[in-house]
Amino acid sequence: MAGCGYSPVPSSSPERTACAAAAVLAAAALLAGCGSGGQTSTATSLAATTAAGTTTATATAAEPAAKTVEIAVANGTVDGGIVRVSVDRGTAVVLVVHADVSDEVHVHGYDLHGDVTPSQPARISFTADVPGRFEVELESRGLQIAQLEVGA
Length: 152
Ligand SMILES: [Cu+2]
Prior knowledge:
The chain has two helices and nine strands, in the order H-H-E-E-E-E-E-E-E-E-E. The longest helix has 24 residues, at about 40-60. By secondary structure, the chain is of the alpha+beta class. Helix content is about 25%, strand content about 35%. It has helices spanning about 10-30, 40-60; strands at about 65-75, 75-80, 85, 90-100, 105, 110-115, 120-130, 130-140, 145-150. Copper (II) ion binds next to loops.
């Protein structure tokens, strides 16, 4: 808002109103600034606002992005500890599990399996459409490697 004070346009009242409105809109449009001057500034702000409105609408309508979760197991433990994953229901999830042993990755609840070897990570893709809290483990070792939490 402070930038409005530098407007070189002399007509105070209409410009002030327009600038105040533009300032609010400009703030929404990532501070697209109204400091550089009168008519041009206002036009720019309105254009930016239109673009911002379009962006917002698009973002709202967009599908949730896929969540990729990398898990690394070495020497019988999970790098950084058990990985906790929390996603909204309906999120596309990709689990990528690297291990220094051959085993089978098991996603409980969803009952999904994927083989892992030292040279080939397991890659399990699914849509998290069942709410709850589920273990992911290296099946034959009974080693929990992640906890998947899916919101209701
Ligand atoms: Cu299991």
